[in-house]
Specification:
The chain contains 5 helices and 5 strands. The protein has helices at about 5-10, 30-50, 70-80, 115-125, 135-150; strands at about 15-25, 50-55, 60-65, 85-95, 105-110.
Length: about 160
């Protein structure tokens, strides 16, 4: 395989995993816990070439991880065991053409009020049913728009 074909395949071979979980962090500790989580995640993700974002809404987390498949799967296995959340469910996963969060090693998403019905819908999914393509695209757009509006860019 030529170098050009290898580079093209690598750029198109981004693996994305989106999951939801239930927040178990007591409200009085949430700010400190999430601050530590974001600081550690950003540092570690930069080293692993992982990008993504974490949405915290009410009692739910929705996170998107992007990068090499083996690296993303390994990180997700660790995340799934984290005691700060439970009911961890993969909503969508697979190879995608490009990163949605290429400028964020771990973006912190605060959704607009207009997005709350979508977030509530996603946070209520049970039984391992993945989100459909339209829901996934809308959720990714909401997360990306929130980061763009906040002007936060932590660089990969």
């Amino acid at each position: 395989m030529s170098d050009q074909n290898s580079r093209t395949r690598t750029r198109a071979d981004v693996y994305r995993l989106m999951y939801r979980s239930r927040d178990l962090v007591p409200p009085e500790h949430r700010a400190d816990e999430l601050g530590d989580l974001f600081a550690t995640s950003r540092s570690d993700n930069k080293k692993r070439d992982i990008t993504g974002a974490l949405l915290v809404s009410g009692g739910a987390f929705v996170q998107v991880l992007e990068g090499d498949e083996a690296t993303v799967r390994s990180l997700f296995a660790t995340i799934a065991e984290d005691p700060r959340h439970d009911e961890v469910e993969v909503l969508a996963e697979g190879h995608v053409g490009r990163r949605t969060f290429e400028h964020w090693s771990m973006g912190e998403v605060t959704p607009a009020a207009s997005a709350l019905p979508l977030i509530a819908r996603v946070s209520e999914i049970r039984g391992g049913r993945p989100v459909n393509a339209a829901e996934q695209d809308r959720l990714l757009a909401v997360m990306r728009e929130a980061l763009d509006e906040a002007g936060r860019d932590d660089g990969p």
